[in-house]
């Protein structure tokens, strides 16, 4: 969190020295998600969906470009089903369905370029993001099938993140790091307001989980299917409002001097 605060302070200094305008806003929307896990014969996937909401803080570098950060709240999920006979450990007469859900606090750092001159303008945004897992669940049906595979022990529904203690649990990385690319349209509302609609694609760069002993047994029993890797893939659509505020001019040198005096 200290690193995030320092980055926000640097953005404040850059924005103040450039145009002296800060942009604050809110967004709300809906998203679709799945992982990159390979789906082979005998498996099926259903895409997850969930509402999302967030807050925006950007700095106008000039009339066309701004940069800053956001704080978004959302849930990513997907459902995988395995046909009867996919794994000998599951049995020939049972289909197993698993649904993974993880709630994230996402912090994107994005640049935004506006295209156009009048009240209606297009824009593009691009940047990396850090997702921090806050909670999650892993639901499986029928529960009896996975209990049998797991040595008679039930699989907990609540996800245990890496670094936390938990018995017979699917270990999930708490952090999701990736990139965002999006675009949309904005409409100028009054002198300082903007309404916008935006579509985004988000791609995770790293695996989100390490497989539990239960999954290793199930997948290794099917020689045609290797242990998968999985990172999140998501698309979301949102609308929101941005408000521009003027800031006093402040050079980077002045900002550094003031910060130095405060330390003393």
What do you see in this structure?
- By secondary structure, the protein is an alpha+beta fold.
- It has one domain: Porin (Beta Barrel), CATH 2.40.160.20.
- The two termini are 23 Å apart.
- The longest helix has 17 residues, at 2-18.
- The radius of gyration is 23 Å and the shape is elongated.
- The chain is 17% helix and 53% strand.
- Coarse shape: elongated
As a percent range, the share of helical residues equals 10-25%
Helices, by number, come to 4
How far is the first residue's CA from the last residue's CA?
23 Å
Largest sheet: 8 strands, antiparallel, barrel
Order of helices and strands, N to C?
HEEEEEHEEEEEHEH
CATH topology: Porin
Name of the level-1 CATH class:
Mainly Beta
Secondary-structure-derived class: alpha+beta
What is the total domain count? 1
Q: Provide the CATH architecture.
A: Beta Barrel
Average pLDDT confidence is 77
Strand percentage lies at: over 45%
| Order of strands, widest sheet | 1-2-3-4-5-8-9-11
Secondary structure: number of strands: 11
């Amino acid at each position: 969190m200290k690193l995030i605060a320092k980055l926000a302070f640097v953005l404040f200094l850059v924005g103040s020295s450039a145009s002296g305008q800060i942009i604050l806003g809110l967004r709300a929307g809906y998203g679709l998600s799945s992982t990159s896990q390979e789906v082979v014969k005998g498996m099926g996937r259903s895409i997850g969906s969930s509402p999302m909401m967030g807050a925006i803080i950007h700095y106008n570098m000039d009339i066309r470009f701004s940069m800053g950060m956001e704080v978004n709240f959302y849930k990513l999920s997907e459902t995988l089903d395995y046909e009867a006979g996919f794994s000998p450990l599951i049995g020939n007469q049972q289909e197993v369905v698993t649904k993974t859900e993880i709630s994230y606090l996402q912090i994107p750092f994005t640049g935004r370029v506006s295209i156009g001159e009048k009240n209606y303008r297009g824009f593009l945004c691009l940047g990396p993001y850090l997702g921090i897992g806050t909670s999650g669940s892993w639901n499986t049906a029928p529960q009896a099938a996975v209990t049998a595979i797991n040595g008679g022990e039930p699989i907990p529904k609540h996800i245990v993140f890496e670094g936390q203690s938990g018995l017979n649990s699917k270990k999930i990385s708490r952090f999701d790091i990736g990139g965002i690319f999006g675009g949309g349209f904005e409409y100028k509302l009054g002198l300082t307001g903007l309404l916008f609609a935006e579509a985004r694609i988000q791609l995770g760069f790293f695996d989100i989980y390490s497989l539990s002993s239960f999954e290793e047994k199930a997948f290794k029993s099917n020689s045609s299917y290797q242990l998968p890797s999985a990172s999140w893939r998501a698309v979301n659509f949102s609308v929101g409002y941005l408000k521009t505020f003027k800031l006093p001019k402040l050079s980077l040198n002045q900002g550094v001097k003031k910060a130095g005096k405060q330390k003393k």
